[in-house]
Write a structure and sequence with these properties.
Elements (H helix, E strand, L loop, with lengths): L6 E5 L2 E7 L4 E5 L13 E3 L2 E7 L5 E11 L2 E9 L2 E6 L4 H6 L3 E3 L3 E7 L4 E9 H8 L3
Antiparallel strand pairs: 1-2, 1-6, 2-3, 3-5, 4-5, 6-7, 6-11, 7-8, 8-10, 9-10
């Protein structure tokens, strides 16, 4: 299972949240609670520390999407830590969601913190953005 279901980048051997910033640059955001050896050049915006780097300087850049079933229903796993999974309900059975103690509502979606051991049919699909970028920018 993946730790985060979102866009990530590896830069100088460390992992960050990431996102495209133009055709040749990516913004990096420090993951809260992680100590970084290469902390220079980051700017603070609110409670977030960000930095823009060239795509060519990245070790990896990808999007992991993790899905799993819980009690027979599909969930998008957003984050895992210490045996717990933060997950968003992907199904449309609102009565089921309420009966199973999920937080939220039918308009904004339902979510839950679940034990990883209760998740079944776990699938992680990775989209490798760095490989795509290198194919477009070969030479």
């Amino acid at each position: 299972m993946t730790q985060y279901s979102q866009e990530m980048a590896e830069y100088r051997g460390e992992t960050y949240f990431a996102g495209a910033e133009g055709p040749d640059h990516v913004w990096l955001r420090k993951v809260p609670g992680v100590d970084y050896a290469h902390a220079e050049g980051f700017q603070t915006y609110g409670n977030r520390e960000l930095k823009t780097v060239a795509v060519a300087d990245l070790d990896a850049w990808y999007l992991d999407r993790c899905t799993a079933t819980w009690r027979g229903q599909l969930f998008n796993v957003v984050r895992t830590e210490n045996g717990k999974a933060e997950a968003g309900y992907a199904g449309g059975e609102y009565v089921w969601a309420q009966q199973n103690g999920l937080e939220g509502d039918q308009y904004n979606g339902y979510r839950a913190t679940l034990d990883e051991s209760e998740l079944h049919d776990v699938q992680v699909d990775r989209t490798d953005f760095l490989v795509r970028w290198k194919e477009k920018n070969a030479g």
